[in-house]
């Protein structure tokens, strides 16, 4: 069975499986379009902390704790994920968190 530490709305760091680095909002900028990057882990750095806010329909807003910007998916192929101040009804700032099946991954 896959074990999951994901409990819904809460504060999290996001770590790729292949490294101990963390997802990080570049320089903690509040400017729209600021790139999210993978960066050296810095415990307690609000640029690397994200609040998952449940908005229903199994969807979450993911806000950077330091800037208050929403993690935003761009509509262009290969465009980076960015931080933006957009209305929470904008589909680009709504995310679904889905467990990896087949025992190949877990939330942590």
Notes on the structure:
- InterPro entries: Ricin_B-like_lectins (IPR035992).
- This is Ricin B lectin domain-containing protein.
- This protein has strands spanning 10-12, 22-25, 34-39, 50-56, 59-64, 70-72, 82-84, 94-95.
- It is mainly β.
- The chain has one domain (15-95): Trefoil (Acidic Fibroblast Growth Factor, subunit A).
- A hairpin with an 8-residue loop joins strand 2 and strand 3.
Major sheet: 4 strands, antiparallel
Report the top-level CATH class: Mainly Beta
Roughly how many Å is the radius of gyration? 14 Å
Named CATH topology: Trefoil (Acidic Fibroblast Growth Factor, subunit A)
State the low-pLDDT regions, or none: none
Mean pLDDT: 87
Protein name: Ricin B lectin domain-containing protein
InterPro entries: Ricin_B-like_lectins (IPR035992)
Offer a few descriptive terms.
4-stranded antiparallel β-sheet, single chain, 31% strand, 0% helix, mainly beta, Trefoil (Acidic Fibroblast Growth Factor, subunit A), globular, 8 strands
Task: Describe the structure concisely for a colleague.
This protein is an all-beta fold and 108 residues long.
Tell me the layout of helices and strands.
Blueprint: E1 10-12, E2 22-25, E3 34-39, E4 50-56, E5 59-64, E6 70-72, E7 82-84, E8 94-95
Antiparallel strand pairs: 1-4, 2-3, 3-7, 4-5, 5-8, 6-7
Protein name: Ricin B lectin domain-containing protein
Organism: Aspergillus fijiensis CBS 313.89
InterPro entries: Ricin_B-like_lectins
């Amino acid at each position: 069975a896959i074990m999951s530490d994901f409990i819904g709305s809460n504060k999290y760091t996001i770590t790729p499986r292949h490294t101990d680095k963390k997802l990080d909002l570049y320089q903690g900028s509040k400017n729209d379009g600021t790139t999210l990057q993978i960066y050296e882990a810095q415990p307690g750095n609000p640029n690397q902390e994200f609040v998952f806010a449940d908005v229903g329909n199994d969807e979450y807003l993911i806000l950077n704790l330091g800037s208050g910007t929403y993690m935003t998916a761009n509509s262009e192929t290969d465009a980076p994920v960015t931080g933006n101040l957009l209305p929470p009804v904008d589909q680009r700032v709504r995310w679904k968190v889905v467990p990896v099946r087949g025992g190949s991954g877990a939330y942590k």
